[in-house]
């Protein structure tokens, strides 16, 4: 940034406008929005400026002015319409240590006037450091349509009520109160029902909290991605920042929690996906009960799950618990481990003419036993991404070898998304051997691919071997 945006208090400060014609009138109009004292330095004034001088809204000064005469001003607009005169005025202003804005001469400017969206006291200033005024105007038009015309009055009313709200509404209820004000009362105010919106706000502040309907809690099952803090979606990030309570898995990247509000309660439900034998593992029903309990207290609960919540994440049980308690629940999708694992090493999941279908399969049943049910579905042109497969690799391998060629290409990707992500390639008949020899640990995805060009013929050998063994 070569310039720094800042909102200056203008009350009691002096601004000099050099020039008496249209350019000067434009800058004067801008300054008239503020409480600055405006001195227009010119030989003669256009009718608009002359009228303002007569009304005492600007001071007219003859062109013969010295640096002393302008020192103490905060800003000088050089807007005479003549580049040479503007340059001379700029030099004079600089001698008096006054910041300069010269019309259409960015090189002479210390300060640029932004495009302004004015909803006083809400003011949006858009600057491009003089490079692209058209872009600034485009952004301004967009914001003009987004910010309702009476937003400023709403903000001013909030400002007046802030003290009363701080006094009446307990600290832990205040966030919900302001959320209700923005989500419910702002649209009401914007629709024109200003008095009603403000009356409701006063009533709620006196009652010490937002009305009950707005206090209903909710649960969001948020996919955190497989690891790597930047693999969460923008929607997931927003939910995380709105959350009062976060229940997180052992598998989600701890850095993601840094993105949440500082005062959000974080609960490590310490449950490595699928590992119910882990002593500290929280039982699923306990997690569900905890979620419901917090949401019933009117809190926004985020259940942060690794990868995508809808894949091997026991989301169904958690959603059923919410449904049974009448708590609104949603899924915010995440990047599943197979997608991240594939992208991590620039592999692709499907490939024209080679792989046209991919199965996402769990290598383990709910009972903890190996699950090989996906094996018979693997055909030429297909691939399987196995989750939770590290310990079950031997069973997967044996299952697939019954119908697939022994030399099918396999890729094992562990800790996708993290700095120590690792990829090893091998063949089907050496899948479990590779995992053992290379010491590959969970979490990892096991990809088994049967490209079309690999051919079917090769499959007959191992099939025959298995069948005749
Ligand atoms: N809901 C998750 C899957 C949970 S099951 C998702 O959509 O990704 C847990 C399994 O996911 C692990 O056993 C492993 O197979 C896989 N997994 C999770 N994180 C991973 C990572 N960073 N790298 C590779 N595999 C991962």
From TrEMBL:
Residues in Tetrapyrrole methylase domain copies: 219-431
Gene3D superfamilies: Cobalt-precorrin-4 Transmethylase, Domain 1 (3.40.1010.10), Methyltransferase, Cobalt-precorrin-4 Transmethylase, Domain 2 (3.30.950.10), NAD(P)-binding Rossmann-like Domain (3.40.50.720), Siroheme synthase, domain 2 (3.30.160.110)
Pathway given in the UniProt record: Porphyrin-containing compound metabolism; siroheme biosynthesis; precorrin-2 from uroporphyrinogen III: step 1/1; Porphyrin-containing compound metabolism; siroheme biosynthesis; sirohydrochlorin from precorrin-2: step 1/1
Active site, UniProt feature: 249, 271
Reactions this protein catalyses: precorrin-2 + NAD(+) = sirohydrochlorin + NADH + 2 H(+)
Recorded GO MF terms: NAD binding; precorrin-2 dehydrogenase activity; sirohydrochlorin ferrochelatase activity; uroporphyrin-III C-methyltransferase activity
GO biological process, one term: methylation
Domain of life: Bacteria
CDD domains noted in UniProt: SUMT
EC number per UniProt: 1.3.1.76, 2.1.1.107, 4.99.1.4
Alphabetized UniProt keyword annotations: Cobalamin biosynthesis, Lyase, Methyltransferase, Multifunctional enzyme, NAD, Oxidoreductase, Porphyrin biosynthesis, S-adenosyl-L-methionine, Transferase
PANTHER family referenced in this protein's UniProt entry, alphabetically: S-ADENOSYL-L-METHIONINE-DEPENDENT UROPORPHYRINOGEN III METHYLTRANSFERASE, CHLOROPLASTIC, SIROHEME SYNTHASE-RELATED
Family label: Belongs to the precorrin methyltransferase family.
Name of the protein described by the UniProt record: Uroporphyrin-III C-methyltransferase/precorrin-2 dehydrogenase/sirohydrochlorin ferrochelatase
Source organism: Rubricella aquisinus
Lineage: Bacteria, Pseudomonadati, Pseudomonadota, Alphaproteobacteria, Rhodobacterales
């Amino acid at each position: 940034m070569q310039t720094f945006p800042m909102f200056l208090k203008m009350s009691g400060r002096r601004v000099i406008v050099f020039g008496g014609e249209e350019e000067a009138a434009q800058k004067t109009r801008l300054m008239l929005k503020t409480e600055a004292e405006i001195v227009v330095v010119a030989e003669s004034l256009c009718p608009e400026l002359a009228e303002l001088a007569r009304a005492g809204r600007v001071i007219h000064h003859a062109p013969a002015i010295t640096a002393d005469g302008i020192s103490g001003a905060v800003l000088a607009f050089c807007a005479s319409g003549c580049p040479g005169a503007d340059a001379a005025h700029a030099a004079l202003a600089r001698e008096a240590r006054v910041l300069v804005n010269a019309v259409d001469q960015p090189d002479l400017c210390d300060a640029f006037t932004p495009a302004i969206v004015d909803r006083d006291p809400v003011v949006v200033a858009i600057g491009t450091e003089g490079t692209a005024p058209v872009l600034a105007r485009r952004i301004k038009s967009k914001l003009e349509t987004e910010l309702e015309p009476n937003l400023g009055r709403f903000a001013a009313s909030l400002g007046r009520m802030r003290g009363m709200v701080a006094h009446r509404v307990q600290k832990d209820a205040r966030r919900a109160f302001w959320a209700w004000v923005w989500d419910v009362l702002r649209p009401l105010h914007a629709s024109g029902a200003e008095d009603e919106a403000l009356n409701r706000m006063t009533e709620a502040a006196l009652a010490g909290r937002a009305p009950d309907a707005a206090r209903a809690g909710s649960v969001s099952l948020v996919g955190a991605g497989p690891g790597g803090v930047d693999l969460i979606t923008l929607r997931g990030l927003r939910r995380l920042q709105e959350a009062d309570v976060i229940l997180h898995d052992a598998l989600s990247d701890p850095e993601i929690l840094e993105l949440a509000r500082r005062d959000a309660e974080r609960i490590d439900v310490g449950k490595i996906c699928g590992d119910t034998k882990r002593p500290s593992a929280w039982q699923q029903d306990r997690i569900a009960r905890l979620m419901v309990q917090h949401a019933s207290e009117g809190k926004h609960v985020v259940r942060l799950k690794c990868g995508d919540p809808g894949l091997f994440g026991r989301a169904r049980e958690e959603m059923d618990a919410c449904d049974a308690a009448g708590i609104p629940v949603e899924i915010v999708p995440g990047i599943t481990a197979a997608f991240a694992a594939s992208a991590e090493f620039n592999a692709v999941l499907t490939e024209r003419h080679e792989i046209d279908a991919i199965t996402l399969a769990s290598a383990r049943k709910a009972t903890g036993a190996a699950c090989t049910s996906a094996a018979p579905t693997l055909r030429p042109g297909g691939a399987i991404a196995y989750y939770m497969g590290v310990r079950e690799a031997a069973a997967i391998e044996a299952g697939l070898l019954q119908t697939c060629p022994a030399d099918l290409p396999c890729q094992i990707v562990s800790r996708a998304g993290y700095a120590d992500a690792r990829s090893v390639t091998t063949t089907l008949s050496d899948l479990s051997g590779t995992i053992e020899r290379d010491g590959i640990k969970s979490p990892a995805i096991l990809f088994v691919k049967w490209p079309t060009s690999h051919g079917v013929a090769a499959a007959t050998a191992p099939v025959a071997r298995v069948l005749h063994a």
